[in-house]
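Extended Data, panel c. Modelled sequence:
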Amino acid sequence: MGNQVNVHEAKTRLSELLARVERGDEIVIARGGVPVARLVAFEPSAERELGFLPGLDTPTSFFEPLPESELAAWEGVLGASPGESSP
């Protein structure tokens, strides 16, 4: 069996194909002789620390309260003046 198989053969021999992929082979699955998918070994992505961006500093102003006009804009009251309540 080569590195290209048809859909029927892939369904029938899936366990065998997976074993080949685990050994480093790459399998192309074709429909009507036209390649439609590639079966390759899974490579887990590198572990990442959530929220960690080297060199990114958060300005202290980020933690200050927002002005009323900006709060109103976030709440969907565009054009509201400070102190004006939402409809």
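The first strand starts at residue 4 and ends at 6. This feature is highlighted in the accompanying rendering.
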